[in-house]
Amino acid sequence: MNKTCLGRLREKQRTAALVGALLFGSAFLSGCGDVTQKEKPLLVKTQQAVSSTEARTGAYSGTVRGRYETNVAFQVSGRILSRNVNVGSRVNAGDVLMVIDARDVQQQANAGDAQVSSARAQLSLAQANLARYTELYQAEAVSASVLDQYQTNYDAAFAAYQQALSQAAQAHNSLGYTNLTAGAAGVVSFISAEEGQVVSAGQTVLTLVQTGELEVEISVPESQIDSVRVGQEAQISFWALKQTASGIVREIAPMADNASRTYTVRVTVTNPPAGMELGMTSEVRLPQGEAAGILLPLTAIYQTEGTPEVWVVTENSTVELKPVTVETFDENRVRVHGLSPSDVVVTAGVHKLREGQEVRTEAAS
Question: Is the pLDDT of residue 21 over 70?
């Protein structure tokens, strides 16, 4: 190849490179022009702030209890000889639950009988002396002061005799207290004493729950106790039985529990279902009036520094934060106050928005 051909070839190469550079620059400038185009406003999901009311109920976990639960104790001290019941035993009125050693009580009864005999002898002597000195006084052989002395001796002997009789009767009554009997039909729910244990008079040894009337016990928080009243109707569902029953609030504790700060409420079961037993768990629903406010999805709440707020779409199609007051909420919804019926609330993607950002709604799209 000569120099002339080589020069022409290089000239063509330079021309081709220049054309490629011009085409690349044109494409680059065209791409920059697309970037400067205005972006579309963000599409958001909204809801009109419409006020609504609904019946409000409170649900509380409860336990089936007996209306009458008696802490049973011996009336005398002694060592327990036998325990005739176990936890869960069903008993009838008059059944012997426990027996304590009666030997010491028997000795007290014997001592009481001896005191009665002694007091009777002293009374007989005082009565005979009084009769003798009464005759002497009538015969004017003794003065009235002497007769008064023997009359006083007789009165004291008679009082001592009456006292001895009472003490002996009390000792004999104590013999009957060595057998601990059930005062009514029920179920033994707790036992705190065993055979061989020495117990004192009045010490609780077991708890007897009367099964004639069962009810449900619930705990109501301080913030909701004002909505509960005696005589209020309730709906009770038993988890084990898969049944429901109606009830009536019978009793409300006047003071809250020191630890849980809840009030104990007793609900009488008006139509007990078959199979309802002591200790079963249940759910008690109590009406608490009507709840007013605006229902929103839980995703509409935007919280900043502990203050709940919502994004509201303005007339200029921009968003702004508006504080609200949360009354109640569940897993999916929240009831709030502080909005106007004309407010349009953003219900999704609230964490992607900023103050004054322009948006477009589904209705405007």
Answer: no
